[in-house]
From TrEMBL:
Membrane-spanning residues: 12-30, 42-62, 74-92, 98-120, 132-154, 160-180, 220-242, 248-266, 278-299, 305-330, 342-363, 369-387
Domain annotation Major facilitator superfamily (MFS) profile: ranges: 8-393
InterPro entries named in the record: MFS, MFS_dom, MFS_Exporter, MFS_trans_sf
UniProt name for this protein: MFS transporter
UniProt subcellular location: Cell membrane
Organism: Brevibacillus nitrificans
Keyword tags: Membrane, Transmembrane, Transmembrane helix, Transport
Gene3D superfamilies found in the cross-reference section: MFS general substrate transporter like domains (1.20.1250.20)
Membrane topology category: Multi-pass membrane protein
Main location: membrane
Cellular component per GO, a single term: plasma membrane
Gene Ontology molecular function terms on file: transmembrane transporter activity
Keyword Acyltransferase: no
Length: 399
């Protein structure tokens, strides 16, 4: 096999699967255990949001550091720290989870940037979107079984099993990670001695978030969409308990299954030509708005609509991230691409964090249904952001 399906990349996808397995369990365990201990939605949202808020802060810095020292060297170092974080989950209570989430957030900033930037450097242009899609797909595969395993652990009150799972994931991730390899294409080799100071590069990249129209549009779209994804991650386990026949495990597993199926089935349909496709992106944001509305109306319409929302949410989530990331990999200047893509992904992290931290108090003051209605309105607003008249004109001419 060649391209994105060569053996070195398959090993990276396996590493991604192991790395994100812990989160598929924690996304259910933390909210439900927090509620059982009397924590408010605000507190649960802060604990859940701390993970990717920390990732957001470190991700742009991670991009520049990886560019300077190479992805493999950085990857091996942070896998050790990730193992420590997972062991902390095994032996601490709700209070210790916050510290573990912060530590794991630092690890994820470097892990995801190391793999994605390594793939971008190593893969030919025509295979780039496939590689990014496969990475993202494997980050969702654990969601097919993790929620069900988490529910089983909580219902059986077998926290020893929880500890064993966390330790096993840490060991497997480290073992696979230390055998991984990523080789840059010869034309992408860089003389690190000629690269600008890291602090200067960061300041320049932050200013590009506003100055560069491509980076700005993609970042706003990713931020808005990620707020909705974050609200689902943090509060669906609690919301589902209020619905007749509602199951958080079924919802999260169904959403993850749709993400996987969509990424695999539509991988070659994701644009990889460096052009902005308005119809494609606007349709994706429409799906996201409809998904949020279905989840909101499930409070009165029943669990069936709840699961329809899971399907629509999964399709939108599968398409949006690889589409925007691939587009930026073409339009951003090569010398600043790692740091600026890191900044873009940081906006995704910020959005997911805000989905828990900001919308938690909204749920406390109103209801989960009202909160998800606000998410639907936000998704609809993102359709306008995705609109580009010049792109639409070009697409019409092509068709």
């Amino acid at each position: 096999m060649k391209g994105a399906f060569a053996w070195p990349f398959l090993r990276l996808y396996l590493l991604t699967l192991f790395y994100f397995s812990g989160n598929s369990i924690l996304h259910v365990v933390i909210p439900l255990k927090g509620e059982a201990l009397g924590a408010s939605n605000t507190t649960i949202g802060i604990i859940m949001g701390a993970y990717l808020f920390t990732t957001m802060l470190f991700r742009p810095w991670a991009g520049g550091l990886i560019q300077r020292h190479g992805p493999i060297k950085v990857l091996r170092m942070i896998l050790v720290v990730n193992g420590v974080a997972l062991v902390m989950y095994a032996f601490t209570d709700l209070g210790g989870y916050f510290a573990a989430r912060v530590l794991q957030g630092v690890c994820t900033a470097f892990f995801s940037m190391a793999l994605q930037l390594g793939m971008i450097d190593a893969l030919p242009d025509k295979n780039r979107s496939q590689g990014i899609s496969m990475y993202s797909l494997c980050s969702y595969l654990p969601g097919l079984i993790g929620p069900l395993l988490a529910i089983g652990i909580l219902q059986a009150s077998e926290m020893n099993m929880f500890a064993v799972c966390m330790i096993a994931i840490a060991v497997l991730t480290g073992a696979v990670g230390y055998t991984a390899k990523m080789d840059r294409r010869p034309d992408d080799a860089k003389d690190v001695s000629q690269q600008p100071n890291q602090g200067t590069a960061m300041l320049q990249s932050v200013s590009q978030l506003v100055k560069n129209p491509h980076l700005f549009k993609c970042s706003v779209l990713m931020l808005g969409a990620s707020v909705i994804f974050g609200a689902v991650t943090a509060f669906v386990p609690l919301y589902a308990a209020q619905l007749d026949s509602g199951s958080a495990a079924i919802y999260l597993m169904l959403q993850a299954a749709v993400v996987v199926a969509t990424r695999f089935g539509l991988m070659k349909k994701i644009p990889s030509d460096g052009k902005w496709h308005s119809y494609f992106t606007m349709s994706t944001m429409l799906l996201l708005a409809m998904a949020s509305l279905c989840v909101s109306l499930a409070a009165v319409a029943g669990a069936a609509l709840f699961y329809v929302g899971a399907v629509l949410m999964g399709v939108a989530q599968a398409l949006l991230y690889p589409t925007l990331t691939t587009y930026l990999s073409f339009v951003l200047p090569k010398e600043d691409r790692p740091t600026q893509i890191g900044l873009f992904i940081a906006m995704a992290d910020l959005g997911i964090s805000l989905g828990g931290i900001v919308l938690g108090p909204v749920a406390d003051l109103t209801s989960y249904s009202t909160m998800y209605t606000l998410c639907a309105i936000l998704g609809a607003a993102m359709i306008l952001v995705a609109y580009d008249r010049r792109s639409l004109t070009t697409e019409e001419r092509v068709s």
